[in-house]
Amino acid sequence: MDLIQLPRVERMRLRRGGDEYIGTLHLTTHHLIFSATAKIDSTSGETISSSDLELWLGYPLIHSAELQRPPKLGSRRDGSVYERSELMAWALQGAIRIRCHHFLFVTLRCADVRKLYDSFSTIKQLACVASLEKLYAFDYRPQSANSSNGWGIYSAREEFERMGVGAGADSEGIGRFWRLSAANDKFQLCATYPDELAVPLRISDTTLTYAARYRSKGRLPVLSYLHANGASMTRSSQPMVGLKQARSVQDEKLVEAVIASAEPQGVTPRLGSGSSSERSNIIIDARPTTNAVVNRAVGAGSENMDHYKRCRKVYLGIDNIHVMRDALNKLTDAVAAESTCAADRGVVARIQSSRSNWLRHIENIMVGVRTIVQAIDASQHVLVHCSDGWDRTAQLTSLAQLCLDPYYRTARGFAVLVEKEWVSFGHQFTLRCGHLGHPDRFKITRASFAQRPAKTGAESESDTESDETPEEPVADTTTSGSASSNSPANVAAAPVDTYEFLQSSTSMFGRFASRAFKGVQSRISSAIQAASDNLDDIDDPDPFYTEYPHLQPNYVPPASDTAHHRASSGFRLGRSKHDHETSPVFQQFLDCVFQLWVQHPTMFEFNERFLLDLFYHLHSAQFGTFIGNNTRERQTLKFKERTQSVWSWVFRHECWEGSEYANPLYMADGAVDYTKVIAPDPAFLQYWSAMFSCHDPAFKRGAGDNDDSDDESDEKDEDIEAATALKADDDDHDHKDESGVSLINDRMTLSRISEPGLASALEEEEQPLSKLQPKLEPEPESQQESIPSELESEHTPKPPALPHTNKSVDAPRALAGSSSFENVWV
Predict the structure, then answer these.
(1) Dihedral sign from CA coordinates of 394, 396, 401, 402
(2) Summary count for the chain: helices (H), strands (E)
(3) In angstroms, rounded to a whole number, what is the distance separating the alpha carbons of residues 614 and 423?
(4) In 3D, which of 582, 64, 586 has the Cα closest to residue 322?
(5) Which contiguous run of DSSP H or E holds residue 161?
(6) What is d(CA 127, CA 439) in angstroms, rounded to the nearest whole number?
(7) HSE toward the beta carbon, residue 113, CA cutoff 13 A
(8) CA dihedral of residues 550, 554, 560, 562 (deg, nearest 10)
(9) ∠385-386-391 over CA atoms, to 5°?
(10) Which has the closest alpha carbon to 330: 351, 309, 304, 311?
(11) Cβ–Cβ under 8 Å, residues 211 and 221
(12) Which of 58, 709, 737, 797 has a Cα at 20 to 30 A from 131?
């Protein structure tokens, strides 16, 4: 509660897209709540219509925020002070710009600059927490108990037994030469693996111990999936080869035993015997070849195929988390940017010009998945790894299983797949999603007055108070906060020759030095600018540096609370390690699932809305499922006892067919034209407009709100049409069937029938809002004082229903229509 400096701000303005509202901002322990009273004209500030719009925003959903301070105001020439109305107009030129993980972009303005600064300070401190236990998941309690136990939906033993593992060598099953090992029951073998591992039957726990030492982070090869034909998919991390080409006999025996598991006797026969073991098994290295070779310098690398018989190695060329993060930042900037010309009406054109290569990265993943699916379907064993085996490896293994096994294409099977390949095998959700927040992402800039045209003669003489009248501000290119990875840095003057040399260097050292050089320049420039701002006119009404020292750029909290230490706190030029580890890995997985769903609309039991809501709750931190970095951490913090599982809510209905997630076109196993194994088609990919849309159902629009639906409907139709051809335009492909009709459009038609959300996005007519409005529960009792008084009277203020319109359906981040689930919108 001490972090909430200002729990309530009246007459706060909120702008989203072209709409601006005025209302009350409430800052509670876990949520930012905006309750609008009227829709206003953004230029004059006059009321256009009444509005009961509401926005509930959980702090973990905030990706970054920017405090744009009002422009500088110097002393007047006649020595008079500014009037209150002038200071209010000046304060409204400041703003808080918020970017959310689920692609919601809002701007807050206030006529009181101190309230604006207090709001930014509160949002920053509540969004950047020190531990997982501060997240909303540890305080959230549903008002009504769910009949489904989401934490019990996955059991490693039951799932591997379903595949046939553990039947014993005397049985006739395909998994008779596999067993479940308890060698990692106390995580002494690998801290990021689950406590139960499926390994070849003839490999002892002692061999596993030595094999783990040869793999990065101890992530040795273990079974991920056993196909019906006996082919296996195993996963691991990179081997610790190094420059000296180190090898491990135990690791080689483990891989050999995996290959021999499909043999009649469980033993690999001699080469040249004509056995099926001579088939070409594959070791998949998801990295680009250069990255794998470079890792040898740090003691890692890739397998020496001279020591792994009956195997061949394939490099997939999937880039690392840093490249993916930069791609997402570029794409997000394109989505958030406003059109610069009348011809540029849709967001797709901006995405194409951003050169984010997002779909190209999706294509690389899908190509790798197709390689794995084809190999396993041909009874070949596959070992998949990247660097540490918890990012690209999880993407490939989970998507391949989705294609190979119809069980994982059911809703419950998909939940089991996510729990198995992502949660239990140690995908770092907290680091990759940035649940704890990053102070470096809360930057501070200052607006500056636009330059006036030069005046001459009497016109110049008559304008004696030109410096007193506030003009339209423009954002200052100088950043007072930490430099953003996707924002141009206003660096100090540097030797041009040195910079050009570093920039043009093609060597790895040159590229690294160039990035480091620019980063240090940016931070030094920020510090210099901060010192310059601090020496501004003493009559400047901006209280930023006098009353808000903790918001100053690169501020380091003092070691004590004494005034001396506060005055002597220094600047920090480093970069947050946690911010460096964020990446949209699981988001890419959901994007790939969507591509498969579009290509095979009858093969999935769930619909698009199911994926969109999982993406929303990936960042909402409302459930414990997508929080934490590994099983060991979750057991230590007792997630199952202290948090709720997202699957408890997903499967709260006893009848799946009647739920909002059911796919009406789904063909169950045994139906006519049913295909057990599906293959991804990397040639047909499309921009997932529903995920990247700026529209968000967290807004509840009142009857008086004017949506300008006709204009936005035209824009949406243009975006949908262009999105289907985005990938083809990037790759210069034009895939058509014999009739000349685009296959992508055909698939869009199928998905249009199967998914009401996507269908309404393709229609021009706006449909009525849904009447289903689930309730949100209040904050825990220990934090009730932070909830606004208006909301306490209702106890559970209603979030917006999911509007099935051409505007909101593009981004249904959370569900509506359930009385048994609360806070679905936060």
Answers:
(1) positive
(2) 29, 17
(3) 14
(4) 582
(5) helix 156-163
(6) 9
(7) 24
(8) -60
(9) 100
(10) 351
(11) yes
(12) 797
Q: Over the range 229-263, which residues count as b (16 or more CB within 10 Å of their CB) and which as e?
A: ebbbbbbbbbbbbeeeeebbebbbbbbbbbbbbbe
DSSP state of 420: I
Catalytic residue at 128?
no
Number of neighbouring beta carbons within 10 Å of residue 37: 17
pLDDT band at 652 (very low <50, low <70, confident <90, very high): confident
DSSP string of 313-380, one letter each residue: EEE-----HHHHHHHHHHHHHHHHSPPSSTT--SHHHHHHHHT--HHHHHHHHHHHHHHHHHHHHTT-
Q: How confident is the model at residue 557 (pLDDT cuts 50, 70, 90)?
A: low
Tell me 423's DSSP state: I
Q: What backbone phi and psi angles, to 5 degrees, belong to 188?
A: -80, -20
CA-wise closest residue to 683 among 743, 761, 622, 615: 743
Q: Per residue in 265-318, pLDDT tens?
A: 666 655 554 444 455 899 999 999 999 999 999 999 999 999 998 899 999 999
Spatial CA neighbour of 520 closest among 551, 487, 558, 482? 482
> Which of 100, 128, 190, 386 is flagged as catalytic?
386
> In angstroms, rounded to a whole number, what is the distance separating the alpha carbons of residues 419 and 154?
7
How far apart are alpha carbons 675 and 332 in whole angstroms? 37
Structure tokens at 343: 């011809």
Say how far residue 198 (Cα) sits from the centre of its chain.
Answer: 31
Structure tokens at 678: 């599906």
Residue 394 to residue 424: CA distance in whole angstroms: 11
pLDDT digits over 782-811, tens only? Answer: 343 343 433 333 333 333 333 333 333 333
Residue with tokens 């490939």: 396
Using alpha carbons, select from 752, 724, 746, 811 the residue that is nearest to residue 359.
724
Taking the CA of residue 197 as centre, how many other CA atoms within 13 Å lie in the half-sphere pointing to its CB?
Answer: 33
Residues in the chain: 826
Gap between the Cα atoms of 722 and 348, Å rounded: 6
**Over the stretch 100-142, which tens digit does the pLDDT of each residue have?**
999 999 999 999 999 999 999 999 999 999 999 999 999 998 8
For residue 713, which of 676, 763, 750, 674 has the smallest C-alpha distance? 763
Q: Phi and psi of 606, rounded to 5°?
A: -105, 165
The pLDDT tens digits of the residues spanning 689-720 come to 888 874 444 444 444 454 443 444 444 444 43
Task: Tell me the pLDDT band of 426, cut-offs 50, 70 and 90.
Answer: very high
Burial 519-537 (b: 16+ CB within 10 A, else e): bebbbebbbebbeebeeee
pLDDT reading at 736 higher than 60? no
Task: Give the dihedral of Cα atoms 396, 402, 407, 408; nearest 10 deg.
Answer: 70
> What tokens does 419 get?
């729990």
Residue 43, CA distances (Å) to 20, 25, 245 in order: 10, 21, 68
Q: Give the pLDDT band of residue 511 (cuts 50, 70, 90).
A: low
DSSP string covering 509-558: HHHHHHHHHHHHHHHHHHHHHHHHHHTS-TT----HHHH-GGGSTTB---
Tokens of 422: 């992502």
Joined together, the tokens standing for residue 34 give 């905006």
CA dist 177 and 169 (Å) reads: 6
Residues 6+ apart with CB under 8 A from 800: 54, 697, 698, 699, 700, 701, 773, 816, 825
**Distance separating alpha carbons of residues 9 and 6, to the nearest angstrom:** 7
| Other CB atoms within 10 Å distance of the CB of residue 689 | 25
